Each structure stands twice: as C-alpha cells, then as structure tokens.
Amino acid sequence: MGKSRSRRNRRLTKQLEVWRRRARWYGWPVLGLLVAIWASLRFSLLEPGPPNDPENLCEIFREHTVWYDYARQSRDKWGTPIATQMAFVYYESSFRSHARPPRSVLWGFIPWTRPTTAFGYAQALDPAWRDYLKANGGSWLTVRSDMEYALDFVGWYNRRSHDRLGIPLTAPRQLYLAYHEGRSGYASGSYRSKPALQSLASRVRARAFRYDNQLQQCEQEFQCWHWYQFWPFCSAES
C-alpha cells in the first residue's frame, strides 16, 4: 500500500515538473499574445467609428453620448466651449480615432514618410503630446486615439494659448490658428501668409458657432446625471 502511494507521488511529481518546464517555455509567448490582444482591443477595435451625421452635434452626441461627457469635463477643466472642441476634431480628423497625415510617395509609387507626427482625433503632434502628458501626469494608457484624452488635450492646449497669448476661449478662429501654427508661430503672425489656413480657421469658427446653436436645442438630453432622472425631465445641474 505504501509502495503504491509512493509510486503515485513520484508520477505526480514528474507530471508537475513537466508542466513547470512547459510553462517556462510557453508562458512568456502566451502572455505576450494575451497582452497584444488586450492592447489591440484597448487602443483600436474598441474605439467607435466616425458618427453617421457629423454635421449635427446633437446627432453626434446621441450616437456617442459619452463624447458629451468627455467634452463637458474638458470644458469644466480648461474652459474651451464644447462646440469649439468638437469643431476642432471635425476638421482635424473627421472623428477618426487613428487618423494620420497621408504618406508622401517616393518615385511616384513607393509609400514614404508622413509630413508630420500628428495622430488621433485631435491630430496632436508628438512634442505637444509629450508636453501634455508631462503637464498632466499621463501614462502609457493616455492615448491620442481615445476621445476623452483628445478633447482634454484640445482644452489644455487652448488654455495655454489663452494664458500665454491672451486669446479668448470664446474665439475659435484665433484658437485654431494658434493650435495649427503653434503659439510661437501665432505670435509671429506666420498664418498671415497662409490664406488657405485662414480660410480653414474661419470654417472652424463657423462650425463651432453652428454646433453651439445646435447644442442649445438638445443639451438637456445629455444632462441626466442622477439615476432617478430621465429625458425630458433632466436637470442642468451635475
């Protein structure tokens, strides 16, 4: 009886050792695969597509209600109106989470480098994004393809333009010129020699005002803060 138990213990020990060796051999690759799958879901597949009706801010927020929450948080934190933030994103990325500038072409057919490092909803450049992360304690989870951080970046950048250049947060045209040219470029007036950019900034202003008018007609829909509230009986208070 004792010998039988001893043999079973030895077999169990050998089996455990085999599984330990297999775990050491396969463990890291499997873990890497799981991390890669999670990262793909976190940073790509789970990001919503562009809204079906980008011309109407009410419809945008009805389709992606959480975007209203993100824009409101950014407005309360930095001061840029919700409509202005969304107008920036409209013209920067057309609401595409992984938008990048198109590549240049070498010899007429070889895809080559991109003109800038702009990426994500807000088309934030690498240096500006690093400054944002440093100033706000961001981590590797703070990414430009997430609307929450993209809108917060827009609000943060505009706030710095307001503080350093005196641009009112209610002046979307001037804010966009500073956003596009950088604060030093705006201060030097580099945009004055770029009529196409000035025209674009005017379109940003017009869209911001249009979005704001639309939002006034529907914002209460997105302000049901308490569990007992439901549209159309919502309070504007948080």
Automatic annotation (TrEMBL):
Gene3D superfamilies: 1.10.530.10
A family per Pfam: SLT_4
Official protein name in the record: Lysozyme-like domain containing protein
InterPro entries the record matches: Lysozyme-like_dom_sf, SLT_4
Domain (Transglycosylase SLT) ranges: 49-218
